[in-house]
Every structure is written in C-alpha cells, then in structure tokens.
Design goal:
With about 300 residues, the chain is of the alpha+beta class. The protein has seven helices and four strands. The N and C termini lie far apart (about 85 Å).
C-alpha cells in the first residue's frame, strides 16, 4: 500500500492498462464470434453460388424466360386436354324440380314403350322407374335437379342402347344416388340456390375433378348381343362410361359331351348324308356360341368437373 501511495501515477497507469487490456480482450472475443458467423454465412453463400452455377439450365434471365414460356405452354396443353375430356359427357342444364319430374316420367314412358315394341318384347324389372322410384311421387332437392337431369339422360341412353342391341331381359336396374340428392355438397350456412340454377364454379372447383355415378344392371342376352352392347358402351363418345365390374354366367353350366366313337363327326366315322361339304348337305350343329348369358354389370357414369381458369 505504501508503494501505491508513493507511486500514484504509476499505479494509476497500471490500473488503466489492466482495464484497457480487459476491454480489448472482450472486444477481441466478440470480434472472433462475429467473424465466425460472417465466415459461416460467407461459406454458405459461396456454396449456394457454386450450386446455382452448376445447375442446368443456369438460372439467368434468358433461361428464366424459357422456363416461363414452357409453363405457359404446359398450362395451355393441360387446359386443352381437360376440355377434350370434359366434352365426353352430357351437358349440365338448368332444370327445376318439377321439370325433372316431367322429364323422368317421359323417359320412363319412352323406355317401356320401346321395350314393348321390340320383338320379342324386352323384359323390364317391376317396378321400373329408372332407379328413381322415390321421385315418382315427390320432387328432388332444388340443387340436385340439374345433376339428376344429366344422370337421367345417361341412364336413358344406356337402356335405349340395350334394347336396340337386342338384350332379351333386364332383371335389375339399381341406380347409385348422387351426393347432391342428400345435400352433401351444401354447407350449413350456405344460401339456398335458386331453383334449377347450375352449381357455382367455386363449388365445382372444390369437388373432385372426376366423379363416378354408378348403376347396377342384371340382364340376359345372347353372347353376340352382349358383346355388341359392351363394346358399344365402352366406345361411346357422347358420354364417358366405365364398365367397372362385369360378371358373366353361361346358361349351360356343363360342357357339351365328348363325341362318342362311331358317332357322326367322330374321327374315322362315315361322312353324314347332310355334310355341308357335299352337294345338298345340311348344317353341322353348333356346339359353342349359341348359349345365352346372364350378366351382372356395374356401370359407372363419369362426370368431369369444370376446372376454374387460373
């Protein structure tokens, strides 16, 4: 203590030096920490620059313009494809509840009349009301009427084609209900749409792009007539149909018996007098292909939703 009192200037100078060295040490440690952060950021940016320079194409203005042009072309191609696909469906038309009931009644009359005029008459299930029996006495929901009207046209088309293609009898015709029939597409706080009005585009965009509305049909037909109907319905252009499930049962469960030795047509047997290869010969009896088949068909009517323009 005496030395400090005797050397006040020197002791003060030493104290200032100690404080200065401590401050400099603190600043040095802080600068080192900051240097580490800056260095890490620099290394990251250099690495990102090297990655970008190695990309193909390199993200420069010219290449960006090419990418934007490709995006426009891609969007146009997708829109054109969707329009072509969406054209393969019956148009959705405004229709009121009462108008739908009238159209349903007229369609049932046309089908039953056409089936009765066919020779032989085509059998229809009883009762028959195109799978819409409940709308015989009560109208549908207002928002469901347009969708039901479109489904009605598709169902009438299917039945008309079946009759024209020679189907012998239809024993079952069960239609799958649409979501609109139970108000499943309507929110609790939505304002009820005007009767017969088409659904809004905003509501359409929230739905799935593709909807499948099925119908279960059981019928009997000759094999050739069944093939004609199935090929025709799958190739139809006005409405997109998907045969989802087809179960075919031959009316003859057992295979035909083998030809007995010595019987007409057996190897080494004498040629029958009615051999068609001989002058005046008759026809050889048909073993396969003449049987009738019972068919259970799950047919889906495909509905492509409208995509809002972006």
């Amino acid at each position: 203590m005496n030395w400090i009192k005797q050397n006040k200037f020197l002791s003060g100078f030493i104290a200032c030096m100690i404080v200065g060295v401590g401050a400099l040490g603190f600043l040095l440690l802080k600068a080192q920490g900051r240097y580490g952060e800056v260095r890490a950021d620099y290394d990251m940016k250099v690495g990102e620059l090297n990655r970008l320079e190695g990309l193909k194409p390199y993200p420069e203005t010219e290449n960006l313009k090419k990418i934007e042009a490709q995006k426009v072309q891609h969007a146009a191609a997708v829109e054109a494809f969707h329009k072509n696909v969406a054209a393969a469906q019956i148009a959705l038309e405004p229709v009121t509840r009462e108008q739908f009931q009238d159209r349903l009644r007229e369609a049932v009359t046309r089908i039953t009349t056409k089936a009765g005029e066919k020779s032989p008459a085509v059998g229809l299930p009883a009762p028959f009301y195109l799978g819409m029996e409940k709308y015989q006495t009560e109208p549908p929901l207002a928002e469901a009427a347009p969708a039901l009207g479109r489904q009605l046209k598709a169902l009438e088309f299917v039945l008309t084609k079946m009759i024209d293609d020679g189907i012998l009898a239809i024993t079952k015709f069960d239609r799958h209900a649409l979501p609109e029939e139970e108000g499943k597409n309507k929110k609790e706080k939505d304002v009820p749409p005007k009767a017969g009005a088409l659904p809004a585009k905003a509501e359409k965009s929230s739905k799935s792009l593709v909807a499948y509305n099925g119908v279960n049909i059981d019928f009997t037909a000759e094999q050739s007539r069944f093939r004609t109907f199935l090929n025709g319905i799958a190739a139809e252009k006005s409405q997109f149909f998907v045969p989802r499930l087809v179960i075919v049962k031959n009316e003859k469960v057992d295979a035909p018996p083998r030809v007995q030795p010595g019987a007409p047509g057996a190897p080494g047997a004498p040629v029958p007098a009615d051999d068609p290869n001989k002058p005046g010969g008759g026809k050889v009896p048909l073993i396969f292909g003449g049987e009738k088949v019972s068919v259970s068909l799950v047919l889906e009517i495909v509905d492509f939703a409208e995509v809002a323009a972006k």
